[in-house]
């Protein structure tokens, strides 16, 4: 997987959650999200219980509430979609503050907001306590197809390379007095995009040749194999197991 690579969502720490093997955390988050999605939308109290469970994980991981809430802004487009549902959905309607809203739309909006927010929060906690390289190792450990793991690894790394190349090209344009102010400058930006594509393609060719010359045969070796003990699995699966109990109560009560 190459050298260490930290992403912006990661928060360095030495908590018990940080110390868990990455594949245990991946499995726990996936199981938690499945349980949340399986919960009936009418059991509103259950989603509050899930939020408390995630808050307990955040406390154990020493992830501040501000850090978590700031990263939750990524779901703003889904919130906008959920807000529109009561207005556009069909079926029985009810008046709320003088507005005619669809009952099915209200339930749908609540369903999207509650389950989406919990899923995003769980993912943010996973990213905040696990480095990117460890996440890729965890995917390998969980027997995800190696080709998909390699694609994800190269995508992340080349994403940073392309972003850095874009930054250098922007600085070069600005150093020559260029500033995009209208449609007249779209031609320059289009040429920059074309040059960026060519540079990225050429760099990819050079990197591939360098990898082949060093013995790359299509499989990235796992340098540090991380095994999880039974205690670590129990600690990681405590979250989805507690959520499963809440889900079962939500279906029966």
UniProtKB/TrEMBL annotation:
Annotated compartments: Cell membrane
Q: Which InterPro entries does the UniProt entry name for this protein?
A: ABC/ECF_trnsptr_transmembrane, ECF_CbiQ, ECF_transporter_component
Residue stretches spanning the membrane? 43-60, 72-89, 109-128, 233-251
What membrane topology does the annotation report for this chain?
A: Multi-pass membrane protein
Q: Which UniProt keywords apply?
A: Cell membrane, Membrane, Transmembrane, Transmembrane helix
Q: What is this protein called?
A: Cobalt ECF transporter T component CbiQ
Q: Which organism is it from?
A: Streptomyces tunisiensis
Gene field = cbiQ_2
